[in-house]
């Protein structure tokens, strides 16, 4: 009886906490689709009587906002694919005991986890590489995260060596073994790390603020922060034909939703792999 009471109480409390967590997101979504005339009359809206997507239409029709969305999509798509290729190939090489220089390279990777060079040396390096005002300044330094590489290596260590040896007998080299044997067996891990990389690239803000001086190359997070602080949405250059744009609060809510929706859409497709990949490297037999 005590265990049943605990489970019921625990479920009720966690349900209430979950509702409290969802309430701000629900309010942002509701305000973003409320008719501007209704929003002006009622500042607190829990369920709109008249629905309107004017705020989304206004934002998407602006060249600056559409351009920033394109920059973020480029960062998330290209950055995630390249990061998975570089990290997984490096981790697979380090998982091979006969790999020359394996221990020194692992030591260097471990040092990058323990010690950070700081913002100024990173900026000087990016400047010397002529990557200032380039989206590649946000992609190249993040291609091989040391922690992710070590976790991937532990996952590759758990794959029996006999699989690779059988592929070598059939005439495959290291690259073909990695492509046709290791990668298909590592989809749960790659899905989990891909989600981490995609979220990181999509949410690029601080480094973009440092390296990108041209506002035309800003990702969505930097533009969103600029709009939220200034509250000025009239400089976006809307081509939607609005004489009077929707209220700034509605535009803020709509911009927050646009910045959040892509990751929310992607997550359910990776969730089934994420549950397995989240335990990568935690257990090794």
From TrEMBL:
Protein's name in the database: Carbohydrate ABC transporter permease
Topology in membrane: Multi-pass membrane protein
InterPro entries associated with the record: MetI-like, MetI-like_sf
Cellular localization per UniProt: Cell membrane
Pfam families linked to this entry: BPD_transp_1
Domain ABC transmembrane type-1: 69-270
TM segment ranges: 12-29, 73-93, 105-123, 135-156, 177-199, 250-270
Family affiliation: Belongs to the binding-protein-dependent transport system permease family.
Keywords for the protein's UniProt record, in alphabetical order: Cell membrane, Membrane, Transmembrane, Transmembrane helix, Transport
